[in-house]
Structure formats: C-alpha cells, structure tokens
Amino acid sequence: MERMSVRLRAVGGVFIQMEDEIASISAVIGAAWAGAKGHDGHSGPGFSLMQESIGYAAFTETPV
Hints:
mainly alpha; 55% helix
C-alpha cells in the first residue's frame, strides 16, 4: 500500500485509503460518475461486503 501511494503520486494519480470495502467501492463509483478512472483493491473476504454496491453500479450501468 505504501508503494502504491508513492507510485500513484508520481504518475499523477490519487491514493485514498478508505475505512471499509463499502466506502471504497462507493468511491470508485463516484470516480466513474465524475469521469475519472477508479481502482479498488481488496483482500478476498471484503468482496462480499461490496456486492450490494456492485449491484447498484450494474443497475445504473456505471463502469467499475
């Protein structure tokens, strides 16, 4: 995570550490609505917490 934060800054990206998986996928959805590319990394078990927001993104046809 520390390496990613330094590397993204070097190439003009923004690194945000969120408090949980629900907030992180919501930030990716918000980035897509704003016209930016978003990326989310998680540790496997957290994916189940994202399912509702991923379903919302699919329903609204938001590319995540």
